[in-house]
Design a protein that fits this description.
With 218 residues, the chain is an alpha+beta fold. Helix content is 15%, strand content 34%. It has four helices and 18 strands. A six-stranded mixed sheet has the order 4-3-15-8-9-12. A five-stranded mixed sheet has the order 6-18-17-13-14, with no helix packed on it. A three-stranded antiparallel sheet has the order 10-7-16. It is globular. The two termini are 18 Å apart. The structure holds magnesium ion. Residues 20, 22, 69, 71, 100, 189-190 line the site of magnesium ion.
C-alpha cells in the first residue's frame, strides 16, 4: 500500500515521500555510540515500504539482524517549501506512531563503507504506521509517552519531550531541502532501547492514547 488513514475517516491519503530523522533522541545517540548532530540527520524510505496496522514485517534474505525503532510520525496536511518555523505546525495534518524497522547488519556494513543507508532502512515492510489522529486533537505533540512492547514486554519507553530537534524545527528544516507535499510522512526519530526482533515476534507501538499499532514479524 502507499496510503494512510486518519483515525476517524475512511478516505485514504496517498503517501508521497517518507522523510526520516536519525539521532534525534540523545539517549539513543548514546547507545549507538554516535555524536549528537548539529543539525537534523535525514534519510528517506520509499512509500512502498509502508505497512498497515495488523501487517507482517518480512525480513529480507540479505539480513539476519532486524531492529525495531518506535517513533512519532508526522503526517503533512498542507505542503510547502521554505516553511517558517513559526508556521510549521499548521502544516501538520495528523500524528501517528510508526516503526523505523532497520536491518542493523546491513546498516553497519554501509556505515563502515561510507555508503547510503537506503537498503537497510527502506526495504519492503520497513515502515509500519498506525492510523493518524488529526493534529487538532493532539494538544501537545512534544508531551507524548512513546512505547514499544515486544511479545508483551516493554522494550522502549520515553517521551517525545526528549527530542533534540522539535517538530516545528524539523518541518521547517526539511521543507528547505525537499518541498513537502500533502501526504508526506516524517519519522521523527527513536528513543533508546532499540533491539532485535525475530520471526514470530509481535510488536505493539503506542504514542500515548493518540495512536497505536500492532504488527508481527513473519
Ligand atoms: Mg529511526
Amino acid at each position: 500500500m502507499s496510503s494512510v488513514f486518519y483515525k476517524d475517516g475512511s478516505t485514504p491519503i496517498r503517501v508521497g515521500k517518507i522523510v526520516c530523522v536519525g539521532r534525534n533522541y540523545p539517549e539513543h545517540a548514546k547507545e549507538m555510540h554516535v555524536e549528537l548532530p548539529d543539525e537534523p540527520v535525514l534519510f528517506l524510505k520509499p512509500s512502498s515500504a509502508l505497512l498497515r496496522d495488523g501487517g507482517r514485517i518480512v525480513i529480507p534474505p540479505f539480513s539476519s539482524n532486524l531492529h525495531h525503532e518506535v517513533e512519532l510520525v508526522v503526517l503533512i496536511g498542507r505542503g510547502g517549501k521554505g516553511i517558517r518555523r513559526v508556521h510549521a505546525l499548521t502544516h501538520v495534518g495528523g500524528y501517528g506512531v510508526g516503526l523505523d524497522m532497520t536491518l542493523r547488519d546491513v546498516q553497519a556494513e554501509a556505515k563502515r563503507k561510507g555508503l547510503p543507508w537506503v537498503v537497510a532502512k527502506g526495504f519492503d515492510t520497513s515502515a509500519p504506521v498506525s492510523a493518524f489522529a488529526p493534529a487538532a486533537s493532539v494538544p501537545d505533540p512534544h508531551d507524548l509517552r512513546l512505547a514499544l512492547k515486544v511479545n508483551g514486554q516493554v522494550r522502549q519507553q520515553s517521551s517525545t519531550s526528549r527530542m533534540l530537534f522539535r517538530i516545528d524545527e524539523l518541518v521547517s528544516y526539511i521543507s528547505e531541502r525537499f518541498t513537502l507535499e500533502e501526504g508526506d510522512l516524517i519519522f521523527t526519530g527513536t528513543p533508546e532501547g532499540v533491539g532485535r526482533v525475530v520471526s514470530g515476534d509481535v510488536l505493539e507501538a503506542s504514542a500515548e492514547s493518540v495512536a497505536s499499532l500492532t504488527v508481527s514479524v513473519a
